[in-house]
Amino acid sequence: MAFKCAVVGAAGGIGQPLSLLLKNDPLVKELSVFDVIPLAAGVAADLSHINTGAKVTSHHGFDGADIRAALTGCDVVVIPAGVPRKPGMTRDDLFKINAGIIKGIAEAVADACPKAMVCVISNPVNSTVPIFAGVLKAKGCFDEKRLFGVSTLDIVRANTFVAELKGLNVTDVNVPVIGGHSGVTIVPLLSRTTPACEFTQEEAEKLTHRIQNAGTEVVEAKAGAGSATLSMAFAGARFANSVMKAMNGEDITECAYVYSSIQDGVSFFSTEISLGKEGISKINPIGKVSDFEQKNIDIATDALKANIAAGENFLSA
């Protein structure tokens, strides 16, 4: 079975390559391209010339009717909309702008496709996902199994960096990354890497620091011209594909930032989840970790408390 997917924010730096990758995904039968700016029509026209099976439709505008038209009938909604990170800007700095954007999108999803699988990329994910959940709750349609903060880029980076260090085939490497999706909340579980690897304490510390700060690495390398767009598009497309495979009955495991009680003290946490036809079928336990990783989990949990509170306070203000 193939599905109707929407990309909200399709004209942006992440949205365009993400839309291209989804247009090339055989599990996508229709790709609904939305942005507030008219460039969305050009992106859709460009994509429509590609000889793959997905039909492309275009929607743009600030009128709420435009986004609702784009979302109607969608099975999967992927949301990279928002302002990108600039040099010197943390993900928290993005909050004031992107919180309002994500709130409006959540309201549209609640009205147009409340049963869709929703994949939130818009930063800061640690706060935007709680905002999205709060809006859906207020609208009476929150399903915790169908809302995901896409943290896949952290796994993609961890796999790449470990493969480079250990001389492994990167396609064989998998490093679970838990916690959240910014800075110290990103906790790679290097001790659970497959295939099994041994890391010195120095290697573990350096790898963890690089994975946590890889976004800044890209921002600085682009010298003010952008943030991580191509790698994020790849990660977003990978996660959307995993969701669709699971909807077709495959047993899929991914890490994602979701509504969960897996970690004491926080209501959202990224960990390994099993995906099924209805979304999350199981939130897998964190399992055995090293002392170093446990210390990082504790640090991440404290930071997540503030991030989640920021999202919840935005809605109650």
Quick take:
44% of the residues lie in helices and 19% in strands. The protein contains ten helices and eleven strands.
Structure description:
The strands form 3 sheets. Strands 3-2-1-4-5-6 form a 6-stranded parallel beta sheet, with helices on both faces. A 3-stranded antiparallel beta sheet has the order 9-10-11. Helix 1 (15-23) packs parallel to helix 9 and helix 4 packs parallel to helix 5 (125-138). Helices cover 44% and strands 19% of the residues. The chain has 317 residues and is an alpha/beta fold. The protein folds into 2 domains: 3-149, Rossmann fold; 152-308, L-2-Hydroxyisocaproate Dehydrogenase, Chain A, domain 2 (Alpha-Beta Complex), CATH 3.90.110. It has helices at 15-23, 39-48, 64-71, 95-112, 125-138, 152-166, 201-212, 214-221, 230-247, 291-316, and strands at residues 3-8, 28-35, 55-60, 76-79, 117-120, 147-149, 177-179, 186-188, 252-259, 268-276, 279-283.
Profile the largest sheet.
Answer: 6 strands, parallel
Give unreliable regions as ranges: none
**The CATH superfamily title of the largest domain:** Lactate dehydrogenase/glycoside hydrolase, family 4, C-terminal
- CATH architecture classification of the largest domain: Alpha-Beta Complex
What is the CATH class name of the largest domain? Alpha Beta
Helix content: 40-55%
SS-based structural class? alpha/beta
The main sheet orders its strands as 3-2-1-4-5-6
Number of strands: 11
Compressed to H and E, one letter per element, the order equals EHEHEHEHEHEHEEHHHEEEH
Strand content: 15-25%
Taken together, the total number of domains comes to 2
Number of helical elements = 10
Radius of gyration: 18 Å
EC number: 1.1.1.37
InterPro entries: L-lactate/malate_DH, Lactate/malate_DH_C, Lactate/malate_DH_N, Lactate_DH/Glyco_Ohase_4_C, Malate_DH_type1, NAD(P)-bd_dom_sf
Enzyme class: oxidoreductase
Binding site for substrate: 85, 91, 123, 157
